[in-house]
Q: What sequence folds into this?
């Protein structure tokens, strides 16, 4: 049943249902969830938004935290105190579709029933909607047992993430436009990632993944409005192995959807690059999160693969 709600110039369409859905991470892992509610918010002043209410098992919540999927950074949530969840109860998530995919969600029509169909159908157009990094978690909650002596109602504890912060109004965003460096600086500080500006265009940090540690460089070009993230593999490829490693990277690049591996033939430096051009637009925290997260997740996934390819050449 569709519930239509209007509040000033904002209109919400809400559809409740009960459907199992599986999101795929960038490294192919499955995140199983039970989708409960779909909400479309349209406004004359603001951009449209699409949110899903999900219910996941404790193990999946731990997967999200460990992989930092859907923008769920433990250090980036708005928690003043550590929230104590019950490992034996499911966790409720509210996730918001990234703005870059709003056109995809309407490919079968703008009615909320058509949008739901976009999620459940198995098609090339709908595949991005079932990718974990197409979504950002805005709220994490869990229903708890009521204290003794209290009957009726429910008690929920949880927290809102940085992606759940109130959006800046369209009018305000046209007045103040952050520079690329300001967005990068703010993001890295918010994520509590120690870094330094090597010069006016390059930020440098050391990143630790599950499989290794390497240097990440963020390069900005304010004039061309381009931002690039490089993950630098910590070892140089020996000269006698560069041809074979280059062939290996060429084959891997063929299947990569976002970004690519590069190798300097002169010194054997190997890196993974992701980039974005925001000319005539602006770099937002959301866009940079996708750019940065994709980069470090892919490098972490390939860390031992690259090492093995060098050793086995």
A:
């Amino acid at each position: 049943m569709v519930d239509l709600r209007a509040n000033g110039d904002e209109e919400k369409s809400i559809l409740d249902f009960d459907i199992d859905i599986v999101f795929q991470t960038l490294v192919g892992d499955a995140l199983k969830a039970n989708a409960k509610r779909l909400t479309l918010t349209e406004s004359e002043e603001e951009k449209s938004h699409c949110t899903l209410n999900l219910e996941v098992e404790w193990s999946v919540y731990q997967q999200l935290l460990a992989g930092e999927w859907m923008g769920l950074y433990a250090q980036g949530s708005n928690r003043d105190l550590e929230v104590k969840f019950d490992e034996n109860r499911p966790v409720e998530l509210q996730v918001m579709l990234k703005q870059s995919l709003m056109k995809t969600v309407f490919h079968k029509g703008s009615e909320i029933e058509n949008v739901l169909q976009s999620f459940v159908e198995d098609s090339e157009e709908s595949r991005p909607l079932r990718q974990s990094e197409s979504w950002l978690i805005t709220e994490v909650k869990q229903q708890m047992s009521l204290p003794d002596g209290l009957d009726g109602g429910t008690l929920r504890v949880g927290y809102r993430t940085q992606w759940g912060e109130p959006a800046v109004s369209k009018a305000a965003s046209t007045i103040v436009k952050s520079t690329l460096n300001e967005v990068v600086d703010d993001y890295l500080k918010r994520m509590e990632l120690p870094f330094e500006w090597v010069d006016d265009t390059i930020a440098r940090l050391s990143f630790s993944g599950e499989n290794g540690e390497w240097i990440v460089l963020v390069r900005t070009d304010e004039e061309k409005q381009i931002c690039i993230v490089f993950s630098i593999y910590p070892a140089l490829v020996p000269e006698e192995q560069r041809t074979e490693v280059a062939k290996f990277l060429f084959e891997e690049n063929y299947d990569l959807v976002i970004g690519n591996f590069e190798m300097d033939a002169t010194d054997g430096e190997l890196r993974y690059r992701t980039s974005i051009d925001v000319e005539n637009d602006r770099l937002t925290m959301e866009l940079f999160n996708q750019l940065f997260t994709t980069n470090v997740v892919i490098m972490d996934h390939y860390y031992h693969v690259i090492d093995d390819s060098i050793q086995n050449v």
